[in-house]
Predict the structure.
Amino acid sequence: MANLFDYLAWRGDLDFIHVPLNPVDFIIFSQIAYLPFDGIVPGPDEKKEISLYHALKTLKEKIQKEKSDTKQFFNFKEDPDFINALVSSNRFRNCGLFGFVNQIDTEKEVQFSAVCITTGEDSCSIIFRGTDTSFIGWKEDFNMAFREIIPSQLEAVRYLEKMAHHVKGSLRLAGHSKGGNLAVYASSFCGKNIQKRITDIYSNDAPGFNIKIVASEGFSLIKNKIHTFIPQSSVVGMMLERGSDYTVIKSSQTGLMQHSLYSWEITYNNLVYAEKITRSSRFVRETIREWLESLDNKQREHFIEAIYNILSSSEAKSIHELEKSWLTSAGRIIKSMGNVNEQTRKIILNTLAELFRSAGRSIDTLFIKKNNE
């Protein structure tokens, strides 16, 4: 069961001229976008780039100097090993990085990050980061349940249009989780001249969209350029409407852990495909779809706001902060749950009850084979 680390060992000495970009490279690019390059990689207004090797070297020195727990820097426990593998890879270490942006705004409820990557050819890969460990990042994701458009999608369009003017040649967009959603959205709603330069869009286990988005003219124009990959037990990739076909990938993990790109199985230059999603993934898809259809937008919004406010009572700003002082945070959350007013408590209980009812109505998908899957 080979993964991206094996790919870096197998193909790490082959440049992009002799072995052109393939789906595995965009899996790696999508994981690179999660790395904390703040203050290291030039921003969108700087007309310069830095090699991936020097960016990673500076990042390692920064972490060592601050002597901090690596959990405070990274989103995934595998990231330190990933960095070491990239530094040793001739294929990736010479990639150019520029246009890095990392924006978190609690008031506007937006978490947006992206970076541009060049590989020495006449093209540029624009990579959008998925949801990080910040609570506001997760809150923005959940807002997709009742909002047609979220702030980071609009940021993604602005970013694409700005960076497209800085580079020549073709454009490829990619991202994991919410990052894949942003790649598709930005491609759908950017200017027509930029849209024509886009050759490929890689969406890796990303949530879908409001039905109005997939029915738009812009989406229809780029639909055939989208490469959508989801793991066998996908949960995130089953949410909302995709509007395009998907390819199922094998993963070494189970359940929700399959969402991690580190678990995806690969060959020498491609991903390992599976025939179909699992019954549990179908169950999740049917349950969430029916659940959301049973609620109007106001009900969805009130439920998400209530849950977010309870979590915010911990005073932690991220999952890492919550883990670091979990005992104190748990106490504050429990106290906050006890203090919620009757109306909020009723919203939470009624919404969860509807979720369980939807699960009960979808339970047959766990046992009945469907010929179209």
Q: What stands out?
A: The two ends are 24 Å apart (CA to CA).
